[in-house]
Design goal:
This protein is of the alpha+beta class. The protein has helices spanning 60-73, 78-86, and strands spanning 8-16, 20-27, 31-38, 48-49, 52-53, 56-57. The strands form two sheets. Strands 1-2-3-6 form a four-stranded antiparallel beta sheet, with helices on one face. A two-stranded antiparallel sheet has the order 4-5. Helix 1 (60-73) crosses helix 2. The model has no long low-confidence stretch (mean pLDDT 83).
């Protein structure tokens, strides 16, 4: 499940390996955030609350860092590039 939820409106999937995804979107109708989740095509995935799919929100600081890398690299492999710089 990679669609929007009641609190997180998915604007763009920026990483998807078939079981884990990272998305840019709007949290609670107010702020731009990065969310992530594990998922199955025909399942709920994780995280979930009361049987409903949810997105895990990164802190605002990490959202800004990933946004910066995404704009500069123009690449769907933003997560892997970020990991290279962290290690």
């Amino acid at each position: 499940m990679l669609e929007s939820t009641s609190m997180f409106e998915v604007k763009k999937i920026i990483y998807n390996d078939g079981s884990f995804a990272v998305a840019k979107g709007i949290w609670d109708g107010k702020s731009r955030r990065i969310g992530m989740r594990w998922y199955e095509e025909d399942g709920i995935g994780y995280p979930q609350t009361y049987g409903k799919p949810q997105w895990f929100m990164l802190p605002k600081t990490l959202t800004r860092i990933i946004d910066m890398y995404y704009r500069n690299l123009k690449s769907k492999l933003v997560v892997e590039e970020l990991i290279k710089h962290i290690n």
